[in-house]
Amino acid sequence: MKTLQRAELLTRIGDRFRANPVVLLLGPRQCGKTTLARQFAAERAAEYFDLEAPVDASRLNQPLTALEPLRGWVVIDEAQLQPELFAILRVLADRRPLPARFLLLGSASPDLVTGVSESLAGRVALVPMGGFDLSEVGGQALRPLWWRGGFPRSFLAESDAESRRWRADFIQTFLERDLRRFGVQVAPSALRRFWNMVAHHHGQIWNASEIGRSLGEAHTTVKRHLDILCGAFVMRQLPPWFENIGKRQVKSPKVYLRDSGLLHELLGLPSFAALEAHPKLGASWEGFALEEVLRITGDREAYFWNTQGGAELDLLVFANGRRYGFEFKYADAPAVSKSLHMARQDLKLQHAFVVHPGGKSYPLNEWAEAVAIGDLKARAEKLT
Question: Of 128, 160, 175, which residue constitutes the final position of a domain?
Answer without folding.
Answer: 128
